[in-house]
Every structure is written in C-alpha cells, then in structure tokens.
Specification:
Helices cover 38% and strands 15% of the residues. It is an alpha+beta fold and 260 residues long.
Amino acid sequence: MTGKNKIMDISELNILTRSISKELECTGFEVKPFKIGWYNDKVDKRFILPETYDTIGYLIISTPSMFENAFLPFISRQECTGVKDPLDQCVAHYFQQIKQKFPNFDIESIHDYELHPNHRPKVLVQTVAHVSGAAYFYQRSDVSEDPWDTKKKMCGVCIHPQYGGWFALRGVLIFKNIECPSLIQENPIDIISTREKRIELLEKFNYCWQDWTYRDLTETIEKYSEDQKQYFATLPKDRKELILSLKSKIKLQSEEIRGS
C-alpha cells in the first residue's frame, strides 16, 4: 500500500490490531495502538514525529513471559556472538516479522534505545505508553508539593495496571500510510494514586532501581522469572557466559522432553 494514506474506520483498525496480536501470540509481546498526534501533543518540539495527527502507531510491550516464550527460543536458534545485545536482536526479529507479515503497509520500526546522531532519543516510549493508555507514566509533576530539591533530577517511570513494574517498552511500529480519525484515546489507569505512594515509587526508582522494589508497589498477575532477573541484573558486557549457560539449560530440557 503506497501513495495516499488509507483512512480506516475503528472496526478495520480493530481487525488490524487483532491480526498483529495474533502474529505475536504466545510470545509475551503485546501491542497498543495510538495516534501519532497524541504523542506529538505531549512532547517537546525536538521529539515530534513527522507523521500526520491521525497516523497510527503501535506500542510494543514485553510482558514477563516474553523471556521464556520469545527470548529463550530465539537464543536457542541463534549463535548470538555479535556485538549487539541478544535481547535487542530478539526484539528486532519480531519487529521484522511484523513488517514481513504486513507487506502492504509502510511500517517504520523505532526501538526504545535508538538515538539520533546528536544522541537524542528517536521516540520517548514512556510518553507513548501514557498517551496510548497502556501504562501510567508517573513523573515529578504528578506529586503535589514534591519534597525534592529543585535542582534534583527525578526520572519518571511507567507502571502497568497488570504487570506493575515487571514489563518493558520495546519500541513502536508506525504504520505510516494508515490513519484512523475515529480511534478514541484511553486514559491510562492510575494505580499509584496517593501522593505518598508516588513519592515512594519515584524514590525507589531513582535511588535504588537495582533492587527491583519499585516494580512491586502494586498487585501483579506475573513477574520476571529468576533467570530473567539474573539476565537483566548482569551487565551486557558480562552476559556471554550467562547466555551460554541458558542455551545449555534449554538443550538439556529439550533432551529430557524427548527422552520422556
């Protein structure tokens, strides 16, 4: 599909969304549609995306099950000897899979870690999560009369209504030739609603994010496995041995299944 943008009604967009979700079924990835205009309304002009207001994008979320359902099978099939992080390779694989499955659409993928030459992020995925309704982006501005020094930088963090902090925002897929004026914006669910809890969340995230506790301030339906925690707690430069260990574990489990 090239040339003039296609205008979809909401029923057509819902069919597309279900089709994308089906392609990612059982992988632990989830998608959430949004309008580029919603995002552009919230960001500084330096971060504005060039598409029209009603152009459709999809936020790609990895849930806790992504590690076992997508990543481990991916590394069991790949050498993973390059300089690129294997998890980034895995996500890129599934982004490319969506592009291949929908060849009639002009799809641009932007990963969460991608930067312009001046080191500015290509997309602010936490803002996308908020405007799409996928997860609430808690920031300093959400705390009335905040207790921190005005010179202190406090980074914001997204909390998901089902997964709490046990999820990640992997990037966006922009369907550059699709518009859906009838898509209605959903507000994200505010599950950290008190001033005290918001202070606790932002302090845990900014001061001690490595201990995982900020992720557990709400009830969750699923959390990272111990293998997944170990992977993310290991510096990328030190993950080679861990990946080899995980691949050996996968191979042993497969042999046990075949032998049973």
